[in-house]
Design a protein that fits this description.
This protein has 139 residues and is of the alpha+beta class. It has four helices and four strands, in the order αβαβαββα. The strands form two sheets. A two-stranded parallel ribbon has the order 1-2. It has a two-stranded antiparallel ribbon with strand order 3-4. A hairpin with a 5-residue loop joins β3 and β4. The radius of gyration is 15 Å and the shape is globular. Pfam families: GSHPx (PF00255). Keywords: Oxidoreductase, Peroxidase. It comes from Meganyctiphanes norvegica. GO terms for molecular function: glutathione peroxidase activity.
């Protein structure tokens, strides 16, 4: 995502990140703050090496289940789901068709705030998003 943030710097394009601990308990740290565990983990563990995200990070949230954030209810309802197979290590219930199936699933919204695309967790190459981003920027 940093590569996209750098490539589209100066454009009307923003990347938002929402840490979530519902997938294999991979984000156990405390919420964002001046010296928090989530940011410490990003900088020093995954991906590590002093990594600084070039996106706006929000507090930890739940993206699935009974107490999911309404933003993700909206996003999931607006875009076709990307997977039909549930992984082990899901830390929420109930499981529903259309759930986000693992961390790093992505949504692309237009300037009007309407969801336009949803990308599977394995779709991580920044080049895969540029045509869709360009189309929305030029709309």
């Amino acid at each position: 995502m940093n590569a996209l943030a750098e490539f589209y710097s100066g454009n009307d394009f923003v990347i938002l990140g929402f840490p979530c601990n519902q997938f294999g308990l991979q984000e156990p740290g405390s919420d964002l703050g001046s010296d928090n565990e989530v940011m410490h983990g990003i900088r020093h563990v995954r991906p590590g090496g002093g990594f600084e995200p070039k996106m706006t990070l929000f507090k930890k949230t739940k993206v699935n289940g009974d107490s999911e954030n309404e933003l993700f209810t909206f996003l999931k309802g607006a875009c076709p789901y990307t997977d039909e197979v549930y992984s082990d290590g899901l830390e929420y219930s109930p499981l529903k068709v259309g759930d986000i199936h693992w961390n790093f699933e992505k949504f692309l919204l237009g300037k009007d705030g309407k969801p336009a695309f949803r990308y599977h967790v394995t779709n991580n190459d920044p080049e895969n998003f540029k045509a869709d981003i360009n189309a929305l920027l030029n709309a």
